[in-house]
Amino acid sequence: MNLNELWFLYEADKRILGFSPYTLKAYSLQIKVLTRDIGNLDIEEVSLTLLKEYLAKQSERLKPSSLGHRVRFVRSLFRFAFEEGYVARNPALKLREPKMDKRIPKFLIEEDVIHLKITCESPREHALLEFLYCTGCRVGEVHRLNVEDINWENCSAVVNGKGSKQREVYFTTECKIWLKRYVESREDSCKALFVTESLPTRRMAISTIRYSLKRLAIRGKVKANVYPHRFRHTYACHLLDNGAPLEFIQGMLGHDKASTTQIYAQLRGERRKELYRRYF
Asked: What stretch or stretches form a coiled coil here (predicted)?
């Protein structure tokens, strides 16, 4: 059995387990890179040394976080091969992820958010900005939202997060007003919550959401780099500033591991520093 044949079986197994199409697409790119570099070898020929040489070569052009993705995929692929009995030994067993610096998430200060709000021109811009700002949703979660996922009475929405895990998020009355105004202004029958302004009307792509925010920031002369995930960091920062415990923030953000949320504990001091540098 060669690597491409193993990938076919691995991909089918992960599809059955409910892995998202986006995850599988990312994995398919990784197997292409792997076979391009080491060849479509028989899986019994793949050794730890060969995998380390491949990853060392990849490290010359990748950040530690991206290299970590490569390592996790290779380990997962060969763990599957070993557990299914396709190989007698797991060559990736001793692979370790690179050490990464603890990066403090970048957030928007209140002044930037206000500038973005007053710069909005269309109901869609208002609704999108408010929803990202007060829910902390991932851009993929916003992209997948349908109008029927909104509970208007409860000011909440059910979003589909990573690993097809659902959670309920909440939004403010101001956000509700803009969402309703936006939905009522539409004349299409598309079930998506956020749709394109050009015809034919379809679900707003992730790239279009990013572009809309960039355009909004340029129009509002906001110097900070504005992108969807930055609103997620800002949301967590506001919750922390208002005294919310990390366990609560973990649930609202949909993090599986507490360690993922723990990085936000550094935001309190970092935010004070950011404000000091900005205003002193």
From this structure: none
